[in-house]
């Protein structure tokens, strides 16, 4: 794995792609989580093929280092559980429902959470949950290791149960989903 080192933090270099294989190394997952500490979460949701959950992160260093800002996809493979909840308390929500707050230009000077910044700070960030009951149950049922991660940001809190973690560069112009042609007959295919 090719990495950049930013203030003693290991950051995968943009021309590398790595996957924690069938024998997932907890130490490597925790290292990847530390790489994302206090960085920007710019997108999260299930992939268009619906099995995996992805987060697109912007990783930045102090501009004086000369290290460019890069985007990475953290793909939680075989994600069997994804819970998302707000990180905002009701008092902040009450001040944050103005439609002008979804656009940075119109919301920046208003009182409330400015949704229009279009990113969330990964702080305190990722945590691998030791001895997760949910992960243990899925591991037992499917016969492969599963893990649970808790992700805390200033906008959302997430809990994910997954079997593998893949981290890869998100190239310029990457879009997790683009509206295209509908299903060939306009119907959702059903299994037999």
What does it look like?
This protein is an alpha+beta fold. It has one domain. Helix content is 15%, strand content 33%. The protein is built from 4 helices and 12 strands. The protein is globular, with a radius of gyration of 18 Å. The termini are far apart.
The tally of helices reads 4
Radius of gyration: 18 Å
Regarding quaternary structure, what we see is single chain
* Overall mean pLDDT: 87
**Overall domain count:** 1
Percentage of β-strand residues? 25-35%
Number of strands: 12
Q: Which structural class do you get from the secondary structure elements?
A: alpha+beta
Topology, element by element:
Blueprint: E1 3-6, E2 9-12, E3 18-19, H1 26-35, E4 40-46, E5 53-59, E6 70-77, E7 81-86, H2 90-94, H3 104-107, E8 120-121, E9 125-128, H4 133-142, E10 147-152, E11 156-162, E12 164-169
Antiparallel strand pairs: 1-2, 3-12, 4-5, 4-8, 5-6, 6-12, 7-11, 9-10, 10-11
Q: Gist?
A:
The protein is α+β, with helices and mostly antiparallel strands.
Features:
about 190 residues, alpha+beta, 6-stranded antiparallel sheet, 4-stranded antiparallel sheet, 4 helices, about 35% strand
